[in-house]
Amino acid sequence: MATAASPSRVPAHRAHPEQQYLDLMRRIWEEGDERVDRTGVGTRSVFGAQLRFDLAGGAMPLLTTKRVYWKTATREFLWFLTGRTNIRELCSQGVEIWTDWPLDRYRRETGEDISRTDFSARIVADAEFAARWGDLGPVYGKQWTDWPVYEPAADGLFARRASGVNQVAELVESLRKNPGSRRHIVEGWNVAELDRMALPPCHKTYQFHVADGRLSGLVYQRSCDVALGLPFNLWGGALFIRMLAQQCDLEPGELVWMGGDTHLYLNHTELVETQLARVPEGRPNLEIVRRAESIFDYRIEDFVVNDYAPQAHIAAPVAV
Q1: Is 91 noted as a catalytic residue in this protein?
Q2: What is the pLDDT of residues 37-61, one digit of tens each?
Q3: Which long-range contacts (CB under 8 A, 24 or more apart) does 283-292 make?
């Protein structure tokens, strides 16, 4: 569950589960290759990384060395499961995770230097404005719940079927009826629609595995912002496992996270150095207080985190 220990550190079998995250951060910062990236900010990067977290007993990979806004991450994940792609629903809940991308497009195309706060407020207040400027294209939830299907049409060409494949619904059915399958997969990387997405999926592939009544999940992330994105991605992957386990009468097993281009932005120096100076404390756990009718019917009130006393939030800019 933890990385191998160096002589100056606590032995791996006794280390706090969060230490492996900090070890990855340190490795990237000290040994990563500096690269020019899409945003122009620049990164230090390693290629190929793995973290593992045991979810038994309600345990969650919720970082304690800085505050992680788990309710915001949960609201985002529940929004994915709706299949909707407009930020209006998120902004109305005070969730601004996705606002920067449509805001950047609005500023470029209109020349108006509107503030993020004013842009979000207008998205919430004006449905027509939200429809024009708030849609992200066919991002995560659309692919998860409505992967497009094309069928032969009368003219010999292919037409898109009205309803696509709901991968999440099919996953639940597969876990219940055929737990030993090696095809428990949810995929977000739809090559044909990447150019229509505000941001192609980073946490692109989820695979699940059942053994001895325990459900484990693997998340493959093609691109990972370790400082700002990964804390949310770990929470989301573990949350998905916990929700699926409840729906399928299984016990939570292990979250396995795998990263491709795993990086830290060069303008995150203060965050990285501050966080690496901290020591993980406590073992937060998640309680799901209600079994929803289906995987699509959970509400934010269904989730309670106990024993979470994080150290102070560390602010850092988002690279768009």
Answers
A1: no
A2: 888 889 999 999 999 999 999 999 9
A3: 283/59, 283/307, 284/59, 284/60, 284/62, 284/64, 284/308, 285/57, 285/58, 285/59, 285/60, 286/58, 286/60, 286/62, 286/238, 286/239, 286/242, 287/58, 288/242, 288/243, 288/246, 291/246, 291/247, 292/247
